[in-house]
Backbone:
């Protein structure tokens, strides 16, 4: 039995790179994505496509309707997705999203007897969300040791964040070296049904700049370019 | 605008008491329950009945299918509910359940601009679940300060656990003094469709002993008594 890891997979550039890194570290990978009522449904298709393409043992999609809670441009169609770089925490912030996703990953990791959870959070080229910061991850890792049967029995589940201190350009360079096909991934907050990106939202801006800075050809399919 | 609180409401004895306590403290109460694929569906009916009966501002039921993760007698019909007092952490433990529930409550609390989340965990007469211990709650409170926009902006959401150090008998005495109608609540892990309790599972045992110790008449409706 090899070591197992749960990978939070959004179908975007970061989580696809993380999956490649986990695989390269020798983990049997179990990818997890969430149908949380996000307006960018193309990410669910991309998450499964990327996961299967990279040979995961299992891909699971959990339904959790965060629309019923509301409060974000990503889950509430009455709030527009901004196309300028925002000040402070933007309206695309989904309240407590990473806490919720990591919690469910923790439950699955415990059932699988997995050693680690990988999450593609990044504290360099990121959107200013509080739950992407290193101190948040440390606090979750501490919680995970106390919250689970595995932790109580001395087998804490590690929270791995290999992108935390990398720039978007460095992430793209690492992923390219591992053979990631970024054309399969979708980062856009308002991609069309075919997964083509708007090229204008905050997430598209960060991604496009990353390819430029990395001096890697951008394989992203844009809607109007 | 009065102060608001989100109350995790399972329809059981503990969370119904907590709701009465939060109300007595002057909070406008928002109750939250989860349709997580639990075999004891009667608790969802009980949760809403208790919440409405106690005048909550809003009752929300969030769908989250934890059956897809498995690993517990409460969500996996192939694992039997034990009827003896178990050694160690029992099979009714749902991996990371309180972490998951608190995370979603945190998201809703943030959207509501609530000051507190109430959860009826108890470290005295409990089933040995790791995520009912005081150190777990402390770790979650710390996480909540770091995870949210509210916390970053200096308005951390408090995690309130008024039952933590009370015995089941004390909980029943406090609730009775606040006028809680325990006949409306359902604690049984395998209640029938009408909400009548088996009288034999771990949860029933703890509840029945609580009424005996509290010297309060037990209004629980049992299946065969």
Residues:
């Amino acid at each position: 039995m090899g070591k197992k890891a749960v990978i939070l997979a959004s179908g975007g550039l970061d989580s696809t790179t993380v999956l490649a890194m986990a695989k390269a570290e020798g983990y049997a990978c179990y990818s997890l994505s969430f149908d949380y009522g996000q307006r960018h449904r193309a990410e669910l298709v991309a998450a499964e496509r990327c996961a299967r393409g990279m040979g995961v043992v299992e891909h699971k999609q959990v339904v959790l309707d965060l629309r019923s809670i509301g409060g974000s441009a990503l889950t509430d169609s009455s709030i527009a997705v901004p196309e300028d770089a925002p000040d402070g925490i933007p309206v695309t912030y989904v309240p407590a999203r990473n806490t919720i996703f990591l919690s469910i990953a923790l439950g699955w990791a415990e059932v699988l007897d997995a050693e680690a959870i990988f999450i593609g959070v990044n504290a360099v080229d990121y959107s200013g969300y509080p739950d992407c910061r290193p101190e948040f991850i440390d606090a979750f890792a501490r919680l995970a040791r106390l919250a689970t049967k595995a932790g109580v029995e001395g087998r804490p589940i590690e929270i791995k964040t290999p992108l935390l201190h990398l720039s978007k350009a460095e992430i793209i360079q690492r992923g390219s070296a591992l053979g990631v096909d970024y054309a399969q991934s979708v980062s856009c907050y308002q991609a069309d049904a075919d997964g083509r990106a708007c090229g204008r939202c905050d997430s598209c801006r960060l991604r496009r700049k990353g390819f430029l800075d990395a001096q890697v050809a951008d394989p992203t399919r844009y809607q109007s370019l």
About this structure: The two ends of chain A are 47 Å apart (CA to CA).
